[in-house]
Write a structure and sequence with these properties.
By secondary structure, this protein is of the alpha+beta class. The chain has four helices and seven strands; from the N terminus they run H-E-E-H-H-E-E-E-E-E-H. A seven-stranded antiparallel sheet has the order 2-1-7-6-5-4-3, sandwiched between helices. Belongs to the profilin family.
Length: 126
Amino acid sequence: MSWQAYIDGNLLASQAISQAAIHGLDGSLWATSTDFKMSPEEIKVLISSFSDPSNIRSSGLYANGQKYFALNCNDRSIYGKKESSGIICVKSKSCVIIGAYNEMIQPGQATIVVEKLADYLISCGY
């Protein structure tokens, strides 16, 4: 399966994620939805926040040009909120899966979809 198929067939097809991307832990883009783009600085800060979330806790998490309030930050998952939309970022062994949801989607639904894909990729060695 291609990386783009995980975006299209797993994340977006769930209808619990409205935008998504997968980046390598080196910041490289593996796959993305057409309307979602992380700047090099945004992805660099995100990846470093899994080991030290102090920056995003104080200044917010930026993704796709949007600022999110960092809700949950640990070495596996980072969740952010902006009004009634949000973002879920989950790190696997070699990549970070990023799923954004809009105001029509319940945060819990979006979280389950991204976390399950991360669990699957980890089980496959990624």
